[in-house]
Write a sequence for this structure.
């Protein structure tokens, strides 16, 4: 059974044994992301995640890589708007090494000046890759259209200029302010035992300290409007969003289920109308994203420019039509898909620790599968309709990347 | 324990129970891919995979989607140069439905004229998406540089023109020729029981027939040379390859291990020299790909144009240096990473059926984990050096997408 503990310094520890496995997934999450950056720091949360791997007081950059890969393990990390996560995947016997390294890179990063100079350039290359990926850009610009200059509207990677402006001192400052043990979660699943993992947690994470003030996260006003990046590519990417709800909101599951009925699977409205019935696009879907104090409810399609006006019109019409009436079969299918995606997620230790950390940050408690299933079961069509109707009142944010006549899209979403 | 059976019609059946799971992965693979296409058929293997979902004698397009998603399951499919695979992920009790649907879409596809007209356009949109994805294009052009007009050198998706030229009759012709029960594999893993699955296999796949002549696959001569797509993007993508070995070749594992030491992880030569020591790129790695009668050994990097010449020089130098001398530690790390990636793969039912089908196509038999581990253990540095030296004799294929002065790259790989 999964268990939750809190170390004296506030670090929460989740242990989730899966006795049939021979490998373990171990992760540390901190409640620090791009939304916590102040002016002059844009991109620092992500740059800090990179610099964690660039040497500690005890280990060089190369030694970190060689030690973990010497036992066939691997390390990874990811930075989002609100969180940074560091992961190790190891065989059962190497869990202690994984805990040691994750602790070391978070507690004792070296932030060497020369290493930083090179790593800033690596991140600049990563920014270039993202800029060449239209479906990354279209969502970056969508959040900008939704929330403008608010931190949730800013790109996680920052800009080449903002990244090149960071120093060892700015990294130390951000870390001292935002990496706090009471906002840190250590989670392990797979070939792990509760007692042994708790011992590792105490040994390696029990001495984390930090008096940082943290960051106050404020709800962003939803601005809406159009962003259009006119680049000449084969396909045009369109993403639209209305105000959704925060991830902890009682309506989050109902909003997510509405999005699934609208565009969550092959049998969904958007897939059937846009792809199967008209052949307009290969990729089309709807989504509901939740953050601490905001959310998005929207849809995405990627098609030749000449199909975009028609696709936009269908998306808007189906958003309204789905909000107005859903069949019992559609809702039952949506619930079945949500349930089975939960079951599938439970089979992977990496998914389990990610989900556990997400629940602790969102609800302050773990939510077991039965409770999630009960929440899904309890959703009514009226709940979904209320959520959709509230969102569709607007405002609306629209992002387009690629060649496109924007007037029909603006008309479809009442922007003009 | 995993078991292998052969139905009277030649369909092979793999059953791989994982008693702790509540879901199952079920897949059907046929030894039919883009290499089996004749002139006038380019893209048909992949288009056929799409059309399998567009209605059968018993089910409409919508009914296929609604039935599987009604139980929270999902369907997917993929076409490669040599194979086409169709998958279902379902909860334990829905395995029979998954087998029914996979059988139905393969045995009784409708190939309706109107559905085909629309689906051709969906595939044209998919071709557009691939054309906008530089790291797809760079590998398409790499195989073209390696193998020219040979089927292995051609893009799997075909071209808009070649796809629009396909008809219900051409689809039926390709299917009759290449979808043969003796080249078909049904594999299930997860919440499955041997007897029950065998019964489903007999019921749903026992009557597959086919007298198709199949296709003779010939080894392609490795041509080599440069392809340069000069599009204006932020980053330039460089992929290079030398002749590797076929997937069934005794040297395949040694070639793969050489590629891992060269550029397989954070501690690898290319990652350290190009990313960690010089900050030239975010993405860099080496690879060994195996096909029925050919292979590639190469490397990829993605960086600003001004870094490409230096990256190319380092890649060539490290290919030679690694072939000349490797440390015992490097080889041990490479073996540890190969072993643990095998162990991790065993934890996912979807990975297990994919691997089982691959082994049957490659070796004509299943290879258990212990045998793979023994093969990895047995690799010597001399094996790896022999494989690398043979590959580096050339010729060399180079593919570049993005702005680039090609002369220094051609010089690095002796193309000029």
């Amino acid at each position: 059974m999964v268990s939750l503990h809190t170390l004296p310094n506030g670090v929460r520890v989740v242990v989730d044994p899966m006795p049939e496995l021979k490998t373990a997934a171990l992760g540390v999450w901190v409640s620090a992301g791009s939304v916590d950056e102040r002016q002059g720091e844009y991109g620092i949360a992500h740059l800090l995640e990179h610099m964690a791997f660039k040497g500690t007081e005890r280990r060089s950059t190369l030694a970190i890589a060689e030690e973990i890969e010497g036992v066939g393990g691997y390390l990874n990390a990811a930075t989002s708007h609100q969180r940074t996560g560091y992961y190790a995947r190891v065989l059962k016997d190497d869990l202690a090494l994984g805990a040691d390294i994750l602790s070391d890179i978070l507690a004792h990063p070296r932030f060497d000046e020369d290493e930083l100079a090179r790593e800033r350039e690596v991140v600049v290359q990563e920014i270039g890759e993202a800029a060449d990926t239209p479906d990354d850009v279209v969502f970056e610009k969508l959040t900008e259209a939704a929330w403008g200059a608010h931190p949730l509207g800013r790109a996680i990677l920052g800009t080449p200029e903002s990244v090149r402006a960071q120093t060892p001192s700015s990294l130390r400052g951000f870390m001292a302010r935002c990496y706090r043990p009471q906002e840190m979660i250590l989670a392990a699943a797979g070939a792990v035992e509760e007692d042994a993992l708790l011992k590792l947690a105490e040994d390696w994470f029990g001495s984390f300290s930090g008096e940082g003030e943290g960051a106050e996260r404020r709800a962003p006003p939803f601005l809406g409007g159009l962003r259009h990046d006119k680049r000449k590519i084969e396909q045009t990417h369109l993403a639209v969003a209305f105000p959704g709800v925060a991830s902890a909101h009682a309506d989050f599951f109902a909003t997510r289920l509405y999005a699934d009925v609208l565009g969550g699977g092959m049998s969904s409205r958007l897939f059937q109308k846009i792809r199967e019935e008209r052949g307009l696009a290969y990729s089309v879907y709807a989504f509901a994203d939740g953050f601490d104090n905001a959310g998005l409810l929207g849809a995405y399609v990627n098609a030749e420019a000449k199909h975009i006006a028609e696709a936009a019109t269908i998306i808007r019409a189906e958003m309204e039509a789905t909000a107005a009436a859903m069949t019992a079969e559609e809702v039952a299918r949506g619930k079945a898909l949500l349930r089975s995606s939960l079951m599938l997620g439970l089979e992977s230790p990496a998914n389990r620790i990610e989900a556990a950390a997400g629940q602790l940050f969102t609800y302050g408690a773990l939510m077991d599968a039965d409770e999630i299933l009960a929440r899904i079961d309890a959703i009514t069509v009226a709940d979904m309709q209320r959520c959709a109707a509230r969102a569709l009142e607007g405002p609306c944010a629209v992002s387009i990347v690629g060649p496109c006549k924007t007037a029909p899209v603006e008309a479809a979403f009442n922007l003009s």
Q: What stands out?
A: DSSP finds 16 helices and eleven strands in chain B. The CA atoms of residues 44 and 163 of chain B lie 7 Å apart.
